[in-house]
């Protein structure tokens, strides 16, 4: 164990408004004072059971007090945090120690912002303390500055309360599951999309092979297009999994709004999410322009919007897709009648965040933003209200709209 003797009294304590109230949107904001924190650090440093746990637990381990402040960290977590000594983490909360971008959004620090109610780590800690039981959640954290060369952390978080000599502490075990998540995303998206494209390539090839004497230029062109799309899907998935769009060049071609909507309908009509629901793709407006864009990437953005909308649509109901002119630009819109809660809306475009709470989710909405804005140069947004439902949009500005 590392001695708390060098504990820095400047470690964040209670910070409140002008009236001394510590504000919070989720977890309790209060912290122990410097004297009590020193006493807790000394107790943890000299407890043989805690010392044994710190030595034998194989993952990233932290010991917290009931105010969720760090009392001890093991060497593996210390290494991940990039800290020279554990004393630098004493008194902090997890989000503050890992530099979560939301950790200082409120005076009360980690756990108190509007974003914290959807944070897996915060939920695990609060629930475990409130219900006095072990709780496990997955947690996606955006960090700044980067930790271990990454600006994003993805953990499985296990929180377990423990009582020692009348004191209650919280054991927090973190497991880095970034690679597991990436493999699950590959299984869920890449292999599915590549299989669909390969089926189209095989079908076109078989039709050509059955009639070797007749030259079918249309089928040959279709085969070439499917092969190009397969290559593009491989590039695209590498971009999404690595979150590095710089290597994915934009292949610009001219395409009509009507073609975009027709291709989208063909791509989605047989998707499992449509079963039991209706997908209504409205005709393109008569005055819709020709676009100069990358139709493969635009199609992927719109497909993700449609699939998300269908998954949120009750059986027997419908999701709608349409395009509309807007001040020299064109907007593609995808609507369903469901409502996104305010808590989820704040993180809707965060990498790996998913309302499903399972591994292998959380890439669809993230990819909308990444591809739609950083590669296509458009603007991706959404609105969601009880009266109007939810509508996702991608707006392509005037420089992407060309004359017929």
Automatic annotation (TrEMBL):
Q: Which domain of life is it from?
A: Bacteria
EC number(s) on file: 2.7.13.3
Keywords from UniProt, A to Z, are:
ATP-binding, Kinase, Nucleotide-binding, Transferase, Two-component regulatory system
GO annotation, biological process? osmosensory signaling via phosphorelay pathway
GO molecular function per UniProt:
ATP binding; phosphorelay response regulator activity; protein histidine kinase activity; protein kinase activator activity
What is the reaction catalyzed? ATP + protein L-histidine = ADP + protein N-phospho-L-histidine
Please report the stretch or stretches of sequence annotated as the Histidine kinase domain: 189-400
Q: What is this protein called?
A: histidine kinase
Species per Swiss-Prot/TrEMBL record: Opitutus terrae (strain DSM 11246 / JCM 15787 / PB90-1)
Supply the source organism's classification. Bacteria, Pseudomonadati, Verrucomicrobiota, Opitutia, Opitutales
